[in-house]
Specification:
alpha/beta, 8-stranded mixed beta sheet, 429 residues, 5-stranded mixed beta sheet, D-Maltodextrin-Binding Protein, domain 2, single chain, 2 domains, 21 strands, 16 helices, 19% strand
């Protein structure tokens, strides 16, 4: 394990190496039967849930604390921050909100304890996207790091990803989405239909890309391949030559003044779009929602090549035991029981339990967010601000339409260390 450019990496981390070398987690013993958790003891428990800003939300912690009777504290970090904290201070985290690709770093460290499926209520209702590797009866794309590749463990003690289903998992399915480009439809001046539009000369000085190497490189590869400038054998695991060519073209664009910004934070992306400084960019769904709440037109544009998919899971750190582990299971079960699903739907995200999520939405919201129907009344954000009017249809259509078109998954590629080094060159150019 070493740091490159301030980011914790594992060098050449391949699926094969993870499958072969998942380190066993010492000191974890099986629990036979889920014990009764007494409220008078449980109320003294505090669980720390740590993850990224888009999913580790204070409102979720408050609602969980209210419903469960013990305290859930939310701690926000960035991508490298989570990996570094798990490596250097794992005892400060109880439940880690882990992106699927981060399992390539965490599993070999042996810091995650096994989660027993038998203790997860409604496991059978969770989306097959995670549990079977399929969606709408078809196998999901295997370009990048799909959830099915890392979710199942070899055993309770051995976190190495299992190629077949087992009774234990590395994480409980959580929030997921299909990402695309955000645009200002009132300012772009023409139809946007392809990832290639991100690098079109039409938007010189008014385009932006996210400054997160593992994500930004995916957007760049989608754009260059769509434009016919580069071709990749597997965008989920490009070679050094492919990465060098991609970064080379990004540097050319940057030096030529194409990018108004390389944004690092959610707020930056919102401000760039809301101000009109940028009209097309890498974007996250809640950022689009945040622009819309300001009464500004902003679209999460469906593109013909498909979406970049990602998924999160709730992982349990190895030190968590006894009553705190019981509380953690209560929390993980609560997380997919409906309230969170309804709340994050209004950010544009999906819950691992679509059934309970939809039960926590109004008929109008359910139609808009999940069923591809036109809104019958105003649609609001999680905090109540208007985002859409009656008659609007969600960008990209229904849940099934959107997730049937995932082309590639966020990932930690084999050449991650090379990517970080080249991305630093892009930043410095």
């Amino acid at each position: 394990m070493r740091k490159t450019g301030g980011i914790l990496t594992t060098g050449r981390v391949s699926r094969r190496n993870v499958l072969k070398g998942g380190a066993a987690l010492a000191g974890v013993t099986a629990v036979t039967g889920f014990p009764m958790v007494w409220a008078q003891n449980l109320k003294d428990i505090t669980l720390n849930h740590t993850g990224m800003s888009y999913s580790t939300l204070a409102d979720i912690g408050k609602q969980a604390s209210q419903d469960l009777g013990f305290k859930v504290e939310m701690s926000v970090v960035d991508h490298p921050g989570l990996l570094n904290r798990v490596a250097n201070d794992p005892g400060s985290i109880d439940v880690a909100d882990v992106e699927v690709w981060q399992n390539k770093v965490l599993i070999p460290q042996g810091v995650l304890q096994g989660i027993e499926i038998s203790k997860i209520k409604n496991w059978g209702d969770l989306t097959t996207l995670y549990t079977e590797g399929t969606f709408a009866g078809k196998e999901v794309s295997r370009q990048g790091d799909a959830p099915i590749e890392f979710i199942y463990r070899n055993s309770l003690e051995d976190g190495g990803p299992s190629a077949s289903k087992t009774e234990w998992v590395n994480f409980v399915p959580g929030v997921f989405n299909a990402d695309t480009l955000g645009i200002r439809p009132d300012l772009v001046g023409r139809e946007i239909s392809t990832w290639a539009d991100l690098i079109s000369p039409d938007f010189k000085g008014k385009a932006a890309i996210q400054n997160i190497p593992t994500n930004g490189i995916m957007d760049a590869m989608m754009a260059f391949e769509s434009a016919g400038l580069l071709k990749y054998g597997d965008k989920g695991n490009p070679t050094q030559e492919e990465l060098a060519a991609t970064i080379g073209k990004l540097i050319e664009l940057k030096k030529g003044g194409h990018f108004r910004a390389l944004w690092n934070t959610f707020d930056e992306s919102v401000n760039l779009m809301a101000s009109g400084e940028v009209v097309i960019q890498s974007m996250w769904s809640p950022a689009v929602t945040a622009v819309q709440t300001q009464g500004i037109k902003c679209t999460y544009q469906p593109l013909k090549e498909g979406y970049r998919g990602w998924g999160n899971g709730l992982s349990l750190l190895g030190h968590v035991d006894g009553l705190k582990r019981d509380a953690a299971y209560e929390y993980m079960n609560w997380y997919n029981s409906g309230w969170v699903g309804g709340f994050i739907a209004k950010q544009g995200y999906y819950s691992a339990n679509p059934k309970t999520a939809m039960e926590n939405l109004t008929e109008n919201e359910r139609g808009f967010f999940y069923e591809g129907k036109a809104a019958t009344a105003d649609i609001t954000s999680p905090t109540g601000e208007k985002t859409n009017s009656a008659g609007d249809v969600r960008d990209g259509g229904s849940f099934e339409e959107r997730f049937s078109k995932v082309a590639v998954w966020n990932n930690l590629m084999d050449e991650a260390e090379f990517l970080y080094a080249k991305w630093n060159e892009f930043n410095a150019a």
